[in-house]
Amino acid sequence: MGDPHRLPRWARGIVIQRRDHLLPGRPGRGKGLGKKLVSHLEEVALEQRIQHIIVILLDDNLPSQRLLHRMRYEVWANFEGIAHFPDGDRGHMYMGKHLIK
């Protein structure tokens, strides 16, 4: 058997969805928590030999987009208008980063 903490080959491309809307009032906004969370995720991913990280967010989430751009994530896709809310439709944006080339 291999290392029990190592992910199987099929799971090395992990999709992460950040759920800001679950935090009422967004208590961590502007305190660097998002950067710490993404940095930690990248460290763990590298330890697990994960090659890519994909972040899915709503396309109107500008603070998260700015954070991810600063951390060298790129927009890989934007599916406009597929997320339906009472106040209007939004797109799902996929931002990604290659960790291992």
Can you offer a commentary on this structure?
The chain is an alpha+beta fold. It has a single domain, classed as 3-Layer(aba) Sandwich (Aminopeptidase), CATH 3.40.630.30. Helices cover about 25% and strands about 35% of the residues. The protein contains two helices and four strands; from the N terminus they run βαβαββ. It has helices at about 35-45, 60-70; strands at about 15, 50-60, 75-85, 90-100. A four-stranded mixed beta sheet has the order 1-2-4-3, with helices on one face. The longest helix is centred in the middle third of the chain and has 15 residues, at about 35-45. The radius of gyration is 15 Å and the shape is globular.
Quick summary:
This protein is of the alpha+beta class and 101 residues long.
Overall helicity: 10-25%
- Give a count of the beta strands, DSSP E runs of length 2 or more: 4
Q: Order the strands across the largest sheet as they lie in space.
A: 1-2-4-3
Give the class from helix and strand content and strand pairing: alpha+beta
What Rg is obtained from the alpha carbons, in whole angstroms? 15 Å
- The CATH level-2 architecture is identified as 3-Layer(aba) Sandwich
Give the overall average pLDDT: 80
**H/E element string?**
EHEHEE
The biggest sheet, with number of strands, parallel, antiparallel or mixed sense and barrel status, is: 4 strands, mixed
What is the domain tally? 1
Low-confidence stretches: none
